[in-house]
Amino acid sequence: MPDDTLPTTADFLQTNRKRWDELAEHHPDTEFYDVERFLDGATTLRPLELEELGDVSEKPLLHLQCHFGLDTLSWARAGADVTGVDFSEAGVSMARELADETELDAEFVQANLYDLPDELDGEFDVVYTSYGVLAWLPDLTEWAEVIAEFLAPGGTFYMAEIHPLGTTLADLQSDGAAEIGHSYFEDDAMRYEVEGTYADWEADIENTTAVEWQHGLGEVVTALASAGLTIEFVHEFPFSCYQQFPAMEEGEDGWWRVPDAEKQVPFTFSVQARNAK
Ligand SMILES: C[S@@+](CC[C@H](N)C(=O)[O-])C[C@H]1O[C@@H](n2cnc3c(N)ncnc32)[C@H](O)[C@@H]1O
């Protein structure tokens, strides 16, 4: 008999959705997201994804887990015909407000990623997702099937993401001394309490519980290949999009690195795959 007092995956997603709703209300006011700079015309995309994905002009682009829309709207500024998806009502409503304010053409859909095939029609030349997305997803096989379903024949899937090796570490010092916080091969949901948010550690956030899942790089690539996509590249980089450990230093390019050049591990990876049908 299953123990129905135990939380289910649906309960975990609901816990995360409550937290993300609160974060989506708070994040537009943080220096981390610097909405003013975006409203002044700056892109929030990094040279990494802009260069690796290349020209998106006039291409239908689906952005999965778009938060409150800054990157989606930056792809619109780069010429793409964008649709952003997120399960947070607050995130999607802020994204729509920013689209109105900037007069950028964009569709935003509020949906759990796994339910997207019931909520959205169409095919996209580009499916995109980035930085801080996979840890919120319990199942990557199903995630990749959703991507394959929306990717037009010949279309490109591209992701740039926080590397799953770095996230297993509880600490990493500049001399390379590291402490492993959880297994790279952890299968179970990891529930934890967090004060504040990565965008503002001092913030008074009520929904402190978060639930994450660990997904190794092999699992990511295998899920995409199993969904029928042809992998074009997997790149790994020794820098992070945020200060993952106190020993990290920010470079002029905005990436965070461990200073000792002899002790480098990956903190970011990118994958490009094609629907070769
Ligand atoms: C770290 S943010 C994405 C960050 C984005 N790169 C940025 O900095 O704006 C992760 C997003 O995933 C969304 N999310 C988490 N689980 C989801 C799910 N099951 N379906 C749709 N969106 C989800 C959250 O609401 C949040 O907006």
TrEMBL record:
Residues 62-155 form the Methyltransferase domain. Gene3D superfamilies: Vaccinia Virus protein VP39 (3.40.50.150). One of its GO terms (biological process) is methylation. Keywords: Methyltransferase, Transferase. GO terms for molecular function: methyltransferase activity. It comes from the Archaea. InterPro entries: Methyltransf_25, SAM-dependent_MTases_sf. PANTHER family: TRANS-ACONITATE 2-METHYLTRANSFERASE, TRANS-ACONITATE 2-METHYLTRANSFERASE-RELATED. This is Methyltransferase domain-containing protein. It comes from Haladaptatus litoreus.
